[in-house]
Each structure stands twice: as structure tokens, then as C-alpha cells.
Design a protein that fits this description.
16 helices, 327 residues
């Protein structure tokens, strides 16, 4: 009886995968549909922010097929509890896994600062890369005064992950955390200039009061879209650290060591969003370096089927997250 139930479950899962393939393929160009037929790198974020990472990956790994999911439907992630983040992002990780990914890139600092051990356990045996670690490495190498300010979402700052990891690498470092909860909505809505953006950025930069702070670490992949305004309101000579390039170097090096790089000279990127396609394209242009085109809608019900809470392993990991929140 157990074996029969297992077979039915696996058939149901297989049908779901095939159904997603059919739906996506009916909307994709022939070239874009091919991206899903070869082992690919899956990249996810709460919306357009991770496109800053994708842009760097395209430069360093031109032969790789990359599938990007921007979960704009649930953006921002910065004010969500870790258990909820695990459910939302675990769906994408398991979807990537079932669709044939060879590696997963968590291009979201909020996720990287809170639930990486659980996401890695959920996604085994696939490697899952964390953008937070790249930011720490870049900031430590950049600072000369050992005074670093981190601009990030409220959840990331509250986690203390950046401060603890920076001090683990640079014990004498002084780290100032600046929560910027309004930044992601600005970028997702395409309001990266104008009076509203000017006011919010000026307010955040005013918190950088120590004149010896020489490095501003952008602890959210959305924030590079705001660099022009940040430069306007920060002291001259302050280095703004965008971890995307360091992150791409780490990913490329690790995949090479694991012998997971494609032998192809020309890969492709498939851009998917759970939100509005046109808004994603408009808001993502400043981060990708060009207008994201084409962008396809990923019907969210197919991610819902991959909720980690539907699995024994996923529920156990969610319980572990909930217990850690109580400490």
C-alpha cells in the first residue's frame, strides 16, 4: 500500500513538472525553451534585485544556461519571518531541482542572512550559493579604516549576520548596520530617482555619521540601482561595495572546482517573474544593464506545489527555523 502511494505521488509530481514545461514552452520562444532542456544555474530573488547578480554571471559565465525567478508577487522579503521565507524560497529551490538545475544562487541577502543552512539542506545535493558571504569578503578586502556601514533590509540587520561574519574575518572591524526598508519598494516600483527617492536616501545616508567609515556595503541586491543617489549623499571618497561582481567570481570558481561548468561557448538566460511582466522589465533595466526582454510569467500555482512544507524533510527544517526564532 505504501509503495502504491509512493508511485502515485511520484506520478503526480512528474505530471506537475511536465505540465509546467508545457505551459512555459507554449509561451517561450524556441531559443528560451531550450534553456530548460540542459542543466542550468537557477537564480532567485524577491524581485528584480538579483538581476544585478545575473548581469555579472553573464559576463563571467557566458556559456551557462541560467534560469532566473524574481518573486515580485511577494516582494519585499525584508519584513517577512524566517519560516515564511523558507516556504517561499524553498518552493523555488525545489522547482529548480525538479526542472534540472545543477546549482542554485540565492541572490537575496535577507534569505542569505537567515535561512541558508536550511535551504542548503533542502536542496541537497545541489550547491546553493549565498550572496551574503560575497559581501562580507568584498567589504573586508575594501576597507582601510576597518569601519564599515551595512545598508540592508530590517530583517538582515536584525539577524546580525553581516556584523558577526565581518568580525570573524576582521576582528578589529567596527560595523554600523543601517536598516533601509523603503529601498526595495523604490526599486521594485522603478522609483530610483525623484523627490521621494532623494528624501529616503538622504535620510539613510545621514546615519553614516562616523567620518572614518570608508566602506558602505550594499546588503541587498536591489540597492545597486540606487548607487547614483547614494554617491550624491555620501561623503566623497566613500567606497560603495556592490557584492555582485565578487559573488559571480566565487560562483564561477566553485563551479569550476566541482567540474560543473558547461562546455558550451554560448549560453542563454530565461527570465521568469511571479509578478507583473511589464513592471519587472521596467524596474529591472537599471540592474541588468539593459531592459530585461523577454520576460515570462511563471504561474504561481506551480511553485505552490513545490512547497517544502509538503515534504517531511521540509517540515522538519521549518520546525528547526521556528525553534531558533524562539531563542
Amino acid at each position: 500500500m505504501f509503495c502504491l502511494a509512493l508511485i502515485i505521488y511520484n506520478l503526480d509530481l512528474l505530471c506537475a513538472i511536465i505540465l509546467v514545461m508545457v505551459i512555459l514552452s507554449s509561451n517561450l520562444s524556441g531559443h528560451d525553451a531550450e534553456t530548460l532542456k540542459e542543466p542550468f544555474i537557477g537564480v532567485f530573488d524577491s524581485g528584480v534585485g538579483g538581476l544585478s547578480v545575473l548581469a555579472e554571471l553573464n559576463i563571467r559565465l557566458p556559456g551557462e544556461n541560467i534560469v532566473y525567478i524574481g518573486d515580485s508577487m511577494h516582494a519585499p522579503y525584508g519584513d517577512r519571518a524566517p519560516k515564511e521565507l523558507f516556504d517561499l524560497t524553498g518552493r523555488m529551490c525545489l522547482w529548480f531541482k525538479e526542472m534540472g538545475a545543477k546549482a542554485i544562487v540565492a541572490a537575496c541577502n535577507t534569505v542569505s542572512s537567515t535561512i541558508m543552512p536550511e535551504l542548503r539542506a533542502l536542496s541537497e545535493p545541489l550547491p546553493v550559493f549565498s550572496v551574503l558571504e560575497a559581501g562580507v569578503s568584498g567589504a573586508v578586502e575594501t576597507t582601510r579604516t576597518n569601519k564599515i556601514a551595512v545598508m540592508a533590509t530590517a530583517t538582515t540587520i536584525k539577524s546580525g549576520s553581516f556584523e558577526s561574519k565581518i568580525k570573524a574575518s576582521l576582528p578589529e572591524a567596527e560595523v554600523t548596520g543601517i536598516a533601509c526598508p523603503a529601498f526595495v519598494p523604490l526599486v521594485e516600483s522603478g522609483q530610483i530617482e525623484g523627490p521621494k527617492a532623494e528624501s529616503l536616501i538622504a535620510e539613510a545616508c545621514a546615519e553614516v555619521q562616523d567620518e572614518e567609515i570608508d566602506t558602505i556595503l550594499l546588503g541587498c541586491t536591489h540597492y545597486p540601482a540606487l548607487i547614483p543617489l547614494l554617491r550624491k549623499h555620501l561623503r566623497a571618497g566613500t567606497t560603495i561595495m556592490n557584492p555582485a561582481s565578487v559573488f559571480a567570481d566565487i560562483i564561477a570558481s566553485d563551479l569550476r572546482e566541482k567540474n560543473l561548468l558547461s562546455e558550451s561557448r554560448q549560453g542563454s538566460s530565461l527570465l521568469l517573474t511571479t509578478g507583473d511582466i511589464s513592471q519587472f522589465a521596467r524596474s529591472g533595466a537599471s540592474l541588468l544593464g539593459q531592459t530585461p526582454d523577454p520576460v515570462y510569467k511563471l504561474p504561481y500555482q506551480y511553485l505552490e506545489r513545490h512547497s517544502p512544507l509538503n515534504t517531511v524533510r521540509g517540515r522538519a527544517l521549518a520546525t528547526r527555523i521556528a525553534r531558533s526564532e524562539l531563542k
